[in-house]
Amino acid sequence: MIEPQSINLREADGYVATEADLIVDKLKCDGLYNPNLLYRGFDGKKLKILLEHGTDTPNSDTIFCGDEGDLRREDSDDGMDIIYHALLHKISALVVYDGSKLTDDSLAYQQKTFTDPKNKLEALVAIYVLQK
């Protein structure tokens, strides 16, 4: 079972290290990083649901998430600012998925479907509570 960890985003200065750099560096330090990862900001109040079901929306087999390029994009026009979305919540959280366990849904940009909806937990790579 994956244990949620904390990342202090206050350590990002925007020059030497961005918030996205801190997340990617943490994944690399933990030996979890690969370029096929997908990221989703969510309400940390739903952490228990995510740990039980593999997603904060257990009644759906699809989620909105983005790749590392989307993680690094700030203030994007398409609403895919993943970190900003996480920080909208009182308890800010980010889940990282194995991209090989989700497939593209052609109906919407960055909408992904679990390849095995009965085993959504297998897609989890890491869960972070973001401190700002």
| Topology order in helix (H) and strand (E) letters | EHEHEHHEEEE
Q: Helix amount, in percent?
A: 10-25%
Supply the helix-strand structural class.
Answer: alpha+beta
Number of strands: 7
Instruction: Output the strand order for the largest sheet.
Output: 1-7-4-2
* Total domain units: 1
Distance between the termini: 26 Å
List keywords for this structure.
globular, about 20% helix, alpha+beta, four-stranded mixed β-sheet, 7 strands, about 130 residues, single chain
Please explain how this structure is put together.
With 132 residues, the protein is an alpha+beta fold. The chain has one domain (5-131). 22% of the residues lie in helices and 27% in strands. It has helices spanning 19-29, 47-53, 68-72, 82-87, and strands spanning 5-8, 37-43, 62-64, 92-98, 102-104, 111-114, 124-131. The strands form two sheets. The protein has a four-stranded mixed beta sheet. Strands 3-6-5 form a three-stranded antiparallel beta sheet, with no helix packed on it. A hairpin with a 6-residue loop joins strand 5 (102-104) and strand 6 (111-114). The chain starts with a strand and ends with a strand. The model has no long low-confidence stretch (mean pLDDT 92).
Topology diagram in text:
Layout: E1 5-8, H1 19-29, E2 37-43, H2 47-53, E3 62-64, H3 68-72, H4 82-87, E4 92-98, E5 102-104, E6 111-114, E7 124-131
TL;DR of this structure?
This protein has helices spanning 19-29, 47-53, 68-72, 82-87, and strands at 5-8, 37-43, 62-64, 92-98, 102-104, 111-114, 124-131.
